[in-house]
Sequence to fold (301 residues):
Amino acid sequence: MYALGIDIGGTKVALAIVTTQGTVIGRDKLATDQTIEPKEMIDTIATHAKHLLSAHNIKESELYGIGIGAPGPLDSARGMITYPPNLPRWRNVPIVKLMATHFSVPIRLENDASAAAVAEHTFGASKTYNDSLYVTISTGIGAGIISRNTLISGSKGNAGDIGHMVIDPSFGECVCGQHGCFEHICSGTAISREASKLKGTDISTEEAFRLYETQDADIVPYLDTVIERMGMAFVSLINTLDPEIIVVGGGVSQAGDRLFEPIRQYVFRYTLNKDARDTPIVPAKLNQEAGVIGAAALLLK
Ligand code: ADP
Ligand code: ZN
Fold:
């Protein structure tokens, strides 16, 4: 038996057939067409899903179900994608109902960071822990919370939307209207935007970290501050949720120890509970595939 995972993002949709052991035996990817109606996009995703299954000789009856991870805000109980900033046309889209016109297996919707948290908890870096937090630092910032081996979803499935906690208002206005959100300061998008301003030319997040390594006089004080702000966010998360481990995924986590080490040091210094100062802060294991594997894992559990 298998589960089909679908991870819907602002730029691409990933699909995977996943075994009960978490192994991906088939995958597909398509671009998210932001110019068409969501229903049309969902029909296209369903067609890709059917082709993927038949290419691997898997019948619908061999599926536990289909899991969908999507950017929030959403309403998981009602199976609706509601207000995702990254999918501007997708407003109150009943995605579970629309997918159910193509498939008769159970279909579940969760926000993408929650799905990734489930993946890391079931098959990845936090597998041996009961209480874990998954934080993704990518174009945006989000988190998934596992407490006592259970996903904490909140009333509608939006728990863990940490990107818009205010960390430092002096960093200016975020897309949400508040000043100084975590995402506005620390996402890949933010780092590239601010590094480009500092250098007067287009700088990617990867390049910013390279300049950091080579002791660039503009980038070092800037990234020191950004990483310290990440430390502040992590301390608040540890104080609030008391996890045993924090798993960090998303593109920016690939910056590695020059990012992780100062965060660990900040956490060591400032967590309120001194027993939590050594909370492991580790890179995600499934990384690029956590989204689809987690979506599938929603049905495997
Ligand atoms: P998405 O948000 O679409 O899921 P990713 O998780 O890949 O995409 O995150 C993309 C962000 O991660 C971009 O801002 C990119 O510049 C940044 N990024 C990717 N690789 C690295 C790296 N090695 N070091 C620092 N930042 C990186
Ligand atoms: Zn915000």
Summary: Residues 164, 174, 176, 178, 181, 183-184 surround zinc ion (ligand 2) (CB under 6 Å). DSSP finds nine helices and twelve strands in the chain. The CA atoms of residues 262 and 274 lie 18 Å apart. The radius of gyration is 19 Å.
